């Protein structure tokens, strides 16, 4: 048998109990701020690399949203625009989808190429030419 909604609201959650104590409230804010910053920083580093860089940044934003109103607003803004972009792409014809996919591929390839060249000093185009020759 499940609890009634009134009973769920009357029973404070773990975060509510932590926030009830001034020291706990400060410790929670600091913990959420640091953890969110670490996740966002990892995501920012991962953006130019193949993989879920932006998803990691958004996860860090979601962590911040637990405690900070500005992060909640930014997260809602982000969700709204990602959904509208997704719906827009879904309504497009296959040629438009292919063109957007090609543009995305070119952009990601350029970012990866520049990231590897700047950070590791490796020119991937020269390496590919050497490999093919």
Name the features.
about 130 residues, mainly alpha, about 0% strand
Task: Explain what the structure shows.
The chain is an all-alpha fold and 133 residues long. The chain has a domain of 69 residues. The longest helix has 27 residues. The chain is flat, with a radius of gyration of 22 Å. The protein starts with a helix and ends with a helix.
In percent, how helical is the residue content? over 70%
Shape: flat
The count of strands amounts to: 0
Enumerate how many helices there are, as a single number.
Answer: 7
The largest sheet, given as strand count, sense and whether it forms a barrel, is:
none
Low-confidence stretches: none
Regarding quaternary structure, what we see is single chain
Overall mean confidence score, pLDDT: 87
> Radius of gyration in whole Å, from Cα?
22 Å
Q: How many angstroms separate the termini? A: 71 Å
Category from helices, strands and their pairing = mainly alpha
The ordered H/E elements are HHHHHHH
Strand content: under 5%
Gist of the model:
The chain is mostly helical. Helices cover 82% and strands 0% of the residues.
Itemize the secondary structure elements and their pairings.
Layout lengths: L4 H6 L3 H6 L2 H25 L6 H13 L3 H23 L2 H27 L3 H9 L1
Helix pairs in contact: 3-4, 4-5
């Amino acid at each position: 048998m499940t609890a009634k909604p009134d009973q769920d609201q009357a029973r404070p959650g773990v975060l509510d109990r932590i926030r009830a104590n001034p020291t706990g409230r400060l410790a929670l804010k600091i913990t959420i701020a640091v953890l969110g910053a670490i996740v966002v920083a990892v995501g920012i580093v991962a953006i130019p690399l193949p993989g879920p860089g932006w998803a990691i940044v958004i996860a860090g934003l979601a962590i911040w949203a637990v405690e900070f109103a500005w992060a909640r607003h930014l997260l809602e803004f982000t969700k709204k625009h990602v959904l509208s972009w997704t719906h827009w792409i879904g309504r497009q014809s296959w040629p438009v989808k292919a063109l957007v996919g090609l543009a995305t591929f070119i952009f990601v390839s350029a970012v990866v190429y520049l990231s590897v060249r700047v950070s590791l000093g490796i020119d991937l185009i020269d390496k590919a030419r050497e490999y093919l020759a």
